[in-house]
Amino acid sequence: MAAPRKILHVDMDAFYASVEQRDDPSLRGRPVVVAWRGARSVVCAASYEARRYGVRSAMPAVRAERLCPDAVFVPPDFGRYKQVSRQIREIFARHTDLIEPLSLDEAYLDVTTTKTGLPSATETAAAIRAAIREETQLTASAGIAPNKFLAKIASDWRKPDGQYVIRPEKVGAFLVPLPVGRLPGVGKVTEARLTSLGIATVGELRERPLGELEHHFGRWGRRLYELARGIDEHPVEPERPSLQVSAEDTFEQDLPLDELAPHIERLAQKVWAGYQREAGRVARTVVLKLKTSDFRILTRSLTPAVHPSSVGELTRIALALRARVALPESTRYRLVGVGLGGLIDRDQYQAQTGLFDDVA
């Protein structure tokens, strides 16, 4: 049998808020909320001082202000966060070329074989975290495990500024006592369905046969069966030319369609920041994704005559796509996503539009 992979999940600690506190000493030790003020604004990030009051990302800003009246609201600066993210990516690249970024502040790394020759994944994680601290004055947490989903769970275990290793022989013992809600993809609704079946922990999930889980959850049942046993064969996928830049959120509570606007606006900001990394490429299509409370997935898309050229245009189109959802008003949604699709090289885009101009 092949030797187990050695996978790291490196996650920056309260990244946006920590960058703000680093760059403005007056914010250090204070509850910082990265968000625009206003009834329709949503929290992008919260410092650990703000989290003690219950403030979390994706929360409406007005609720964050009620929970923490002394919070300092700072508007997001995605250009600055992107610059720091590039610094961190350069540190990763000293150790391995197998890097799969998930966002500006987290990534998977396959360190089964490294460039540095460090003897273990644990020492590699420690070296990466030390370099991040020294070169950016920020902290990161890391999870070390034989696969991606376990590494992601492990990176939360010693937050902030810590690391945790799940060794291959300890996977079962680690997973069994966990609540099923800790498994990736198990949100509030799925957790409630599992609870109704008498399944509250991963250990109880492991006791159910594959056929029963597939009966209740369809194809997702097989994935639950595998996750409960620590099985995840997905390799770390290094960055490659993207066909789409997207971001999505699963809500704590299902929401009606008319309450999704602030979430769409915040995701559009996040997508646009990611799109800026796609230098020399053009996105032609705006995509809106929705998942209903009963797990039905809807997508709406638009390819305008001229590609979106600003975050404002992206936001306007994404919000307009919401109006093309023709489900009953009583429908509730557990997830919303925004994407820019159809990415091609700028030269190719200009050649295509020039061709159509000639035809016209």
CATH architecture of the largest domain: 2-Layer Sandwich
CATH fold-level name of the largest domain: Alpha-Beta Plaits
Order of helices and strands: EHEEHHEHEEHEHEHHHHHEHEEEHEEH
**Count of β-strands:** 14
The CATH fourth-level homologous superfamily of the largest domain: Reverse transcriptase/Diguanylate cyclase domain
* Contiguous runs where pLDDT drops below 50 for at least 5 residues: 351-360
| Strand coverage percent | 15-25%
By helix and strand content, what is the structural category? alpha+beta
The largest β sheet comes out as:
5 strands, mixed
What's the rounded overall pLDDT mean?
90
The percent of residues in helical segments reads 25-40%
Label the overall shape: globular
User: In CATH's first tier, which class of the largest domain applies?
Assistant: Alpha Beta
Radius of gyration (Å): 22 Å
Observed structural traits:
about 350 residues, alpha+beta, Alpha-Beta Plaits, DNA polymerase, domain 1, Dna Ligase, domain 1, four-stranded antiparallel beta sheet, globular, EC 2.7.7.7, DNA_pol_Y-fam_little_finger
